UniProtKB/TrEMBL annotation:
Pfam families: Peptidase_S9. One of its GO terms (biological process) is proteolysis. This is S9 family peptidase. It comes from Formosa sediminum. InterPro entries: AB_hydrolase_fold (IPR029058), Peptidase_S9_cat (IPR001375). SUPFAM superfamilies: alpha/beta-Hydrolases, DPP6 N-terminal domain-like. It comes from the Bacteria.
Length: 937
C-alpha cells in the first residue's frame, strides 16, 4: 500500500504539472502590483493599492490580522490621518469611460475629474467630494483636511461616462463661456474648502492661490485674490484651536504670493509677495514675515534693499530653523531681460559654443529653466531682522546644519572643475564655512570629489574623498582635518572601471555627533571623528555577509544608542537575506530572520514598532506582510496574484564556471517549473554586468521596457541564463566574451541545452556587448540588441541628450571602460567597436533604438542597422517614435514584447514567421497594420 500511495502521489504531481498553463501574451495583463502601501500611525491598519497594468486600480484597507475592512475601485494615493481615525484617497473615473470620451474627442479639460474620499475607520462611513484638484492634511496633528476644487460646472443631464457609479455629478458643462464673476484659474485662484473631519463642517474660501498647514501647531494659512464684498485680497492665518481668522497681509487682487510657509509651531509665517500689477519683466518681490501676536506681516527685504547684484527670489524655498530663530530664503541675481519690442524677424537665434566654458552648451541649454530659477540661500535672524547671505555666485550651494539652528553653514563651488568633469566624470568642489551670524567665510577644502556635508549637530564637515579613497572629517571648532580610513579598504573592493573606487556609504551619526558609522564591503564600523579610533560593530566578512542599517524614521537625525538598531543582511555566496537587530549598549546583535528570500525595507508605524514589509523569491510574489520589529511572526496581508498557481512558472539557481582568463564566475539559470533534465531546451542568454545578487527577485509577467521577462519565457519552455561579467580596463567587449562564452559552454555540457537554438538579448550596455559578441561567434541562433553602441569613436564624440553631457567621461572612466581618449588608445576604440567587423556577423539581429533616446544617441542604432543592411545580413530595427532609452507608453511596451517573443519563437522554437519580419511595416501602414500575423510554414 505504501508503494501504491507513493505512486499515486507522483502521478498526481505529474498530473498537476500537466494541468498548468503556459503563459501567453494575453495572460500578462492579469498580474497585479502593489503600490502606495502604508501603515496607520497606530499600526492598526494597512492600506495599499492593487495596480493591474492599464486596468483600474483597487484600494484596500485591512486590519493587523489581514481582515478586509474596506475596498474601493479606481482609488489610489491613500494616506492615514495622524490620529489613525481616517483614511483619505482619490478616486478616478473608470478608465474605459475615459477611453470612450477620448475616442469621442472630448477635450482634456472636459474629462471627469478626481473625487476625494474620506473614510471613517471607526464608523465605516465614507464621504466623497467630486472635482477635487488637490488636498492636504496636517502632518503632525489631525482633525482637518483642505481641498481645492476644479473649476467645474454641473451639467443638468447626468453623463453615463462620468463617476455615476459613485453617484457623483461631475460632468463638465459644455458650450461657450458665460460672462459672470471672476474667473477661477491659476492666476485668480481656486475655491478651497476647509473641512473639519470630526464635525464635517466645511468652510469655503474663494480664489485661493496658496495654502498650507503648520507642521505641529494647529494653524492654517492661505493667500487669496479676494472676492468682491466678501473677502479682501491678501494673506490669512486661521487658528484652528479657536477658529479665529486673522488677515495678516492685504493687497490688491493681482498680487502674487510664493513660498507660503509656517514655522513648525505655526507661530510664524513667511511668504514672498509681488505687488506689481504691470507686466514688468523684473518682478519686484519682497519677503514678508508674520509673528503670532502681530497685527500684520512686516516687509523685511525687497529688490531695492537686497544686497547689491541680487534680488529677492520667488523660487527660493522658505524654511524656519527648528528653534524658530531664523528664516531661510533665497536671493537671486538679476534676470536677463528680453527686448520685447523686437519681432521674430529681428531676433538672432544662434548658439555660441566656447571651448573653455565651465559647462558644455548642451548642458546649459538643458538647464535653462533651472538656471533661471537659481537662488542663493540667505538667512534672516528673526530677533534682529539682520540678514546674512550664505550662498552666492562665488559659493552657490549652501548646506545648513542642525535643522537650521547651527551658527555655521557649509557652502561649495563646483565651477572650477566643471569643464574637466566632461571627461573625468568627477563632481569636484571647493568648500568653505560661513558664519551664519556675521557672514564671515573661511575656505576649508579644495578640489574634493565625492561630496562633503555637515554632521547632524554641525560639529563636523565630513564626506568621502573619491581621489584619496578615504572618509574625511573636519572639526569645525578646532579646524583639524582627519583622514579617517586612509590606507584601509572602505572603498569598493570590486571596482572594475578605470576610475577611482567609490565608497560603500554610511549608516549615519550617533547622538551629539559622537561617532560616524561607516560601511566597508561587509561590516559597519563606528569611527571617532577626532581620533579616527575605529570599532567594528558587526562580523560579516568571515561569512561574506553584508550588514546595512535600516532607517525606520525619516526624520531621525542620528542613530539612538539607547534603542535597538535594525540592519538588513545579505550573504554574497548564498544570496540569502534577512533582518538583524543590534543592541548598541551591549554591542551585540541577533539575527531575526534569514533565508532564501529578498526582504524589503520595512515601513514602521509612527507610534509603535509595528511594521509592514515584503519578502520575495523567484516563485514567491512580494505580498505585504505585517509584523513588529522582532519579526517573530508575521501575517500575510495581501494576496495580489493567486492565479500564479495555475501557470507553469519556473525555478532559479546559481551556476558557477571559470572565465577564459581563469576567474571564478557566478550566474543565474532559470528553468521551467516542469523541467526535465533528459530533454533539450532552447535557451536565451540575457545579461548586463552583474545580476546574480538578484537571485531571489520575483519577476512577475509584465510588458517590460527593454528585456525579456524571465517567468514568461520559462513558462513557455525556455531556459534563461544570466551570467555575471567581470571587466578588464580597455577591453570591455573581450571581457564579455571571456566570461559569457565558457558559461554557455558549461551549460551545454550538462546536456539539457539545445546548442543549436540559443539566443542572446540585452539592452544599452548589454546591447553593446551583444553587438560585439555577434562579430566574434556564430554560436547564437538569433539576438536582440537594444540601444547598442556599435561605434565607440562616434559615440565618444556624442551627447547624452537627457542631461546635455558629453559622452567622453563614459569611455575614459566609467561604464565603457576604455580608459583614455581615442588619440591615446585608438586601437582600443577600434577593437571594441563592432561597426568595423560587421562583415563577420552571421546571426540574425533585432535592434530596438528609439529616436528620443537621451542616453545612447539614436544614430548608433542606425549605424548598426544600415551597416548590417548594406551587407545583406538579416536584421530589423524597431524605433518607437518619441520614446526615450526604452519604450514607456503601454502600447509600445506591449508591442515590443510581442515582437520580441515572435522573433525568438521563430528562430529558437521553429514557430511560424510573423509578417513584420517578412515585409516590415511600411511607412504608409505605420500605426495601422502591425504585422503580427503569422505566415504559413
Amino acid at each position: 500500500m505504501k508503494i501504491i500511495f507513493t505512486t499515486l502521489l507522483v502521478c498526481c504531481s505529474l498530473f498537476s504539472y500537466a494541468q498548468k498553463k503556459a503563459l501567453e501574451q494575453s495572460d500578462i495583463g492579469l498580474w497585479r502590483t502593489i503600490d502606495d502601501e502604508t501603515i496607520s500611525p497606530n499600526g492598526d491598519f494597512v492600506m495599499y493599492t492593487l495596480n493591474q497594468g492599464e486596468k483600474d486600480l483597487f484600494l484596500k484597507i485591512k486590519d493587523a490580522k489581514g481582515k478586509l475592512i474596506f475596498e474601493h475601485d479606481r482609488a489610489k494615493n491613500g494616506i492615514f490621518t495622524n490620529d489613525s481615525k481616517y483614511a483619505l484617497f482619490t478616486v478616478n473615473a473608470w478608465k474605459d469611460s475615459i477611453t470612450e470620451l477620448k475616442r469621442k474627442k472630448v477635450k482634456k479639460k472636459d474629462l471627469p475629474k478626481d473625487t476625494l474620499a474620506i473614510y471613517n475607520l471607526a464608523s465605516k462611513d465614507i464621504a466623497k467630494i467630486a472635482n477635487v484638484k488637490s488636498y492636504k492634511v496636517p502632518e503632525k496633528w489631525s482633525g482637518y483636511v483642505a481641498y481645492v476644487l476644479e473649476d467645474v460646472k454641473q451639467d443638468k443631464k447626468k453623463s453615463k461616462d462620468s463617476l455615476s457609479k459613485d453617484k457623483v455629478k461631475d460632468t463638465i458643462a459644455k458650450g461657450k463661456k458665460k460672462k459672470g464673476p471672476k474667473k477661477v484659474d491659476k492666476d485668480n485662484g481656486y475655491h478651497l474648502v476647509l473641512r473639519n473631519l470630526i464635525t464635517q463642517k466645511e468652510d469655503t474660501i474663494k480664489y485661493v492661490t496658496n495654502f498650507t498647514f503648520a507642521k505641529e501647531g494647529k494653524r492654517f494659512g492661505y493667500t487669496t485674490t479676494g472676492e468682491t464684498n466678501t473677502t479682501a485680497a491678501g494673506a490669512y492665518v486661521i487658528n484652528l484651536e479657536n477658529n479665529q481668522t486673522t488677515q495678516v497681509f492685504s493687497s490688491h487682487d493681482q498680487a502674487k504670493y510664493y513660498q507660503l510657509h509656517f514655522s513648525d509651531t505655526g507661530e510664524k509665517l513667511g511668504f514672498i509677495a509681488d505687488l506689481d500689477s504691470t507686466k514688468v519683466q523684473e518682478r519686484p518681490n519682497a519677503l514678508y514675515v508674520w509673528k503670532s501676536g502681530d497685527a500684520t506681516a512686516q516687509e523685511i527685504i525687497n529688490n531695492t534693499s537686497a544686497p547689491k547684484g541680487y534680488r529677492v527670489s520667488s523660487d527660493g524655498r522658505l524654511s524656519f530653523s527648528k528653534n524658530e530663530s531664523k528664516l531661510y530664503f533665497g536671493l537671486a541675481t538679476p534676470s536677463i531681460l528680453k527686448d520685447t519690442t523686437l519681432i521674430d524677424e529681428e531676433i538672432v537665434n544662434v548658439e555660441v559654443w566656447t571651448y573653455n566654458e565651465p559647462r558644455l552648451y548642451t548642458v546649459q541649454e538643458n538647464n535653462v529653466k533651472r538656471d533661471r530659477k537659481q537662488s542663493f540661500q540667505t538667512v534672516l535672524h528673526l530677533d534682529t531682522n539682520a540678514i546674512v547671505q550664505l550662498g552666492s555666485t562665488k559659493y552657490p550651494n549652501a548646506n545648513i546644519g542642525d535643522e537650521g539652528n547651527a551658527n555655521v553653514a557649509l557652502v561649495s563651488n563646483p565651477e572650477p572643475y566643471e569643464l574637466a568633469r566632461q571627461w573625468t566624470a568627477l563632481r569636484a568642489s571647493d568648500y568653505a564655512l560661513v558664519n551664519v551670524n556675521t557672514g564671515e567665510t573661511k575656505k576649508i577644502m579644495t578640489n574634493i570629489a565625492g561630496g562633503m556635508r555637515l554632521s547632524p549637530n554641525a560639529k563636523y564637515v565630513y564626506g568621502y574623498d573619491l581621489i584619496d579613497s578615504t572618509w574625511v572629517s573636519y572639526n569645525i571648532n578646532t579646524g583639524k582635518e582627519l583622514n579617517l580610513t586612509k590606507g584601509k579598504v572602505f572603498y569598493n573592493e570590486l571596482n572594475d572601471t578605470p576610475n577611482y573606487p567609490r565608497s560603500y556609504g554610511v549608516a549615519g551619526w550617533t547622538e551629539n555627533d559622537a561617532a560616524l558609522l561607516v560601511y566597508d564591503r561587509y561590516d559597519v564600523w563606528s569611527i571617532n571623528p577626532d581620533s579616527g579610533t575605529m570599532t567594528k560593530l558587526t562580523n560579516g566578512r568571515a561569512s561574506k555577509t553584508q550588514y546595512r542599517y535600516v532607517e525606520l524614521d525619516d526624520e531621525a537625525r542620528f542613530l539612538d544608542t539607547s534603542s535597538l538598531w535594525l540592519f538588513t543582511t545579505f550573504n554574497e555566496d548564498t544570496k540569502h537575506s534577512g533582518y538583524y537587530a543590534y543592541n548598541a549598549k551591549r554591542k551585540k546583535g541577533e539575527q531575526l530572520v534569514d533565508g532564501p528570500y529578498r526582504y524589503s525595507k520595512p515601513i514602521k508605524a509612527l507610534n509603535n514598532t509595528d511594521v509592514i514589509f515584503t519578502k520575495e523569491s523567484f516563485t514567491e510574489f512580494p505580498n505585504l506582510r505585517y509584523s513588529n520589529l522582532s519579526f517573530k511572526k508575521d501575517i500575510q496581508i495581501s494576496d495580489a496574484n493567486p492565479q500564479q498557481k495555475d501557470y507553469n512558472w519556473g525555478t532559479v539557481e546559481l551556476v558557477n564556471w571559470t572565465s577564459l582568463d581563469g576567474k571564478p564566475l557566478t550566474g543565474m539559470l532559470v528553468k521551467p517549473e516542469n523541467f526535465d533534465p533528459n530533454k533539450k531546451y532552447p535557451m536565451i542568454v540575457n545579461f548586463y554586468e552583474k545580476s546574480s545578487d538578484g537571485l531571489f527577485r520575483h519577476k512577475a509577467p509584465a510588458y517590460g521596457r527593454s528585456t525579456i521577462n524571465y517567468s514568461f519565457y520559462a513558462s513557455r519552455g525556455y531556459l534563461i541564463f544570466n551570467p555575471d561579467i567581470e571587466y578588464k580596463d580597455g577591453y570591455p567587449g573581450e571581457s564579455a566574451y571571456n566570461c559569457l562564452m565558457p558559461g554557455v559552454a558549461s551549460l551545454i555540457a550538462k546536456g539539457f541545452v539545445d546548442q543549436d537554438n540559443i539566443g542572446l538579448q540585452g539592452h544599452s550596455w548589454g546591447g553593446y556587448q551583444i553587438a560585439y559578441l555577434v562579430t566574434k561567434t556564430d554560436l547564437f541562433k538569433a539576438v536582440e540588441s537594444g540601444a547598442p553602441v556599435p561605434n565607440m569613436i562616434s559615440a565618444y564624440g556624442g551627447i547624452r541628450w537627457g542631461t546635455g553631457l558629453s559622452r567622453q567621461f563614459q569611455y575614459e572612466h566609467t561604464q565603457s571602460r576604455i580608459g583614455g581618449t581615442p588619440w591615446e588608445y585608438p586601437m582600443r576604440y577600434i577593437e571594441n567597436s563592432p561597426i568595423f567587423y560587421l562583415d563577420k556577423v552571421n546571426t540574425p539581429v533585432l535592434i530596438m533604438h528609439n529616436d528620443a533616446d537621451g542616453h545612447v544617441p539614436w544614430y548608433q542604432g542606425i549605424e548598426f542597422f544600415v551597416g548590417l543592411r548594406r551587407l545583406g545580413k538579416p536584421s530589423w530595427l524597431l524605433n518607437y517614435n518619441g520614446e526615450p532609452h526604452w519604450p514607456l507608453q503601454f502600447q509600445n511596451r506591449k508591442d515590443f514584447n510581442i515582437r520580441l517573443a515572435q522573433f525568438f519563437d521563430y528562430y529558437l522554437k521553429g514557430a511560424a514567421k510573423p509578417m513584420w519580419m517578412e515585409r516590415g511595416v511600411p511607412a504608409i501602414e505605420k500605426g495601422i497594420n502591425q504585422g503580427y500575423e503569422l505566415m504559413e510554414n
